[in-house]
Amino acid sequence: MKVFSAVFTFMLLTLSNLVYSQIDNPEDKVKATFSLEQNGCEAYVVAKITVVPGWHINSNKLPAGSFSIPTQLNINPLSGVTVVPGVIEPKPVIENNTDIDEILSYHKGSFIIKRKLVLSSPNDLIISGSFSFQTCNDVKCLPEYTLKFSLPAKACSLSKEKTDSIIAQSTLATENVVTEKKSNESAKSGSVNATNGSSGTGKSMLIIFVLSFLSGFAALLTPCVFPMIPMTVSYFTKTSKNKAMGIRNALFYGISIITIYVILGTIVTAIFGPAALNALSTNVWFNIFFFILLVVFAVSFMGAFEITLPNSWLNKSDTVSNKGGFIGIFFMALTLALVSFSCTGPIVGTLLVESASIGGIAPFVGMFGFSLALALPFTLFAAFPGWMNSLPKSGGWLNTVKVFLGFLELALAFKFLSTADLVSQSHLLERELFLAIWIGIFTVLAIYLLGGFKLPHDSPFERLSVGRVLLGTTTLIFVAYLIPGMWGAPLKLISGFPPSPTYSEWKQSGSSNTSNQSAEHVEGMHEGVHGIMMFDDYDKALAYAKKVNKPLMLDFTGWGCQNCRKMEETVWNAEGVLSILKDKVVVASLYVDEKKELPASEHKELEYAPGKKMSITQVGHKWGFLQMSRYKSNSQPHYRMLSPDGKDLANGPADFEHHGNAEAFKKWLEEGLKLAK
């Protein structure tokens, strides 16, 4: 039962990691509290900001040519309120970042940003506005994020001449604001807390750690690792002169295991960098290579052959480990890592690619979580050998775990092949074939778990364990859930993982029922997901938006973007959202990874920021350049609302992290429609 629980949890969480691919959330990095300081007819909107350690937000006044997104404190237009131009902010940190060839200007820690107002209304008012910022650390920046506020203000009648005089005398230069100054906290009106900011690390890092820890536990239950626990305990029991020495040596052994794997994660980050691995995530050849690699690992797990490191490596490590002392213990840990490679290698490889593509210190965190789970049992049982009696005996169940992981690796491999197919638009692995492959893999897995056949390294057994029966039954239920997807069922539990319903055989054959036949004659328009008529070209979409006088929704997306598919399949078809997308806006889905070659006459090199150029040779390059140069963002999905004449509306951006549910996305759409009027 313990085996069933651990392995099934690993399966679900690994799938969850690939489906959702969560990234850091700005809400967890920045806490903002807003208040109004009013003295007669002059007032300040005060934003008290706290940024968690290791992160910062850009300043409002940026150096010339900066590619960063400035922090803004905007006040909504209101009769009787005049906003003094300029944002009052503390003196920023100035840093010359040679890696990206840019001078950075930012704020960190706790500080205050202000905006001055002049009030001339005989009635009490509600001052509303927004605070937008981009959160960055040393290796990446998150999408721009906006917080809104509403603050009460007292009435104050003032002539236009007096108002103009106050504005003319106002100092617009940046001033130092001391956050500890008590007078700044004597706001005459109430304050509103815009977000429940956290002082801890981001959610995604916690998720990576938890999933990595569970992956390490799964690796522990493989036949390459589990039988080594008694051997290790026996070694420390015999070589330790007393209990204190045994505990000390066991602790150093565990620390050595963690150190070895953490160094591996650090090397991956240092050599490739998070940005490079993230760029590889939509590269056709990288995805094909990783597909082949996972298939090889899967076949190995099933018992066809063993993947081992060169014997010379093992012999040298084992020789040094016999010398004793701390050096010997360290190399004993290294020997464990090398010997168990055939079982831990596939898990570590998948974990490194997934975590490194997220960026930052994710590979470090991932390897720490994995190695901690791997090291804990060795350390604890070596320190307290009496606990060994509670361990289950080695047996055939260990190989069952390994085979199960092999089937799981095989299923995950086809996700990478699907990404390569989607990006290249080859239509070789469409939705029906993908689901058929998964149905076949998990059906065979269920038959195996229920005793239908044996694989090369399986031990004979007289009866099935309860764990195998439960896991086999759960797998059959999953297969039954997948089958309706062959005929167009949404499969929300795994949405974003298989190709979308629009990338399918029945869609390509033209057998779908078009929901809006009247729009087919418009050049460049086609039927997309849920029957939404949309464009894949910005200029054609904008021309049509002007013609029908509707707002234009830009959908910066990608063929290999899992979160884009999840938004389309679970949010776009929600009640109230679908009707807006079909009838009230013009949708332009711009694929930044579209590999279609542009005509030679359109090949060019454009500057998306001062001194930074980008070669435009493919259709996807056009849309990637548009997103980076206009919106200073390169993450997908990224949504923007434009007026019919092509001007950006003030409802700001929408993305998966903050609008990944129907209610939030619908509210964003409705704000855009209201502003467009």
Outline the structure in words.
- By secondary structure, this protein is of the alpha+beta class.
- The chain has three domains: 2-21 and 203-481, no CATH class; 26-193, Immunoglobulin-like; 513-676, Glutaredoxin.
- Helices cover 46% and strands 16% of the residues.
- It contains 20 helices and 20 strands.
- Strands 13-14-16-15-19-20 form a six-stranded mixed sheet, sandwiched between helices. A five-stranded antiparallel sheet has the order 5-8-2-1-12, with helices on one face.
- The termini are far apart.
Keywords:
five-stranded antiparallel beta sheet, six-stranded mixed beta sheet, 3 domains, 20 helices, 16% strand, disordered N terminus, globular, Immunoglobulin-like, alpha+beta, Glutaredoxin, 677 residues
Layout of helices and strands:
Layout: H1 2-20, E1 30-39, E2 42-51, E3 56-58, E4 72-75, E5 81-83, E6 93-97, E7 102-107, E8 110-119, E9 125-133, E10 135-136, E11 145-153, H2 160-169, E12 192-193, H3 203-220, H4 228-239, H5 243-280, H6 284-301, H7 311-321, H8 325-339, H9 341-358, H10 362-383, H11 396-424, H12 431-449, H13 466-482, H14 505-508, E13 525-527, E14 533-535, H15 538-548, E15 552-557, H16 562-570, H17 577-583, E16 586-591, E17 604-609, E18 612-616, H18 619-631, E19 638-642, E20 654-655, H19 656-659, H20 662-676
Parallel strand pairs: 14-16, 15-16
Antiparallel strand pairs: 1-2, 1-12, 2-8, 3-7, 3-10, 4-9, 5-8, 6-7, 9-11, 13-14, 15-19, 17-18, 19-20
Helix pairs in contact: 1-3, 1-11, 1-13, 3-9, 3-10, 4-10, 5-8, 5-9, 5-10, 6-9, 6-11, 7-8, 9-10, 11-12, 12-13
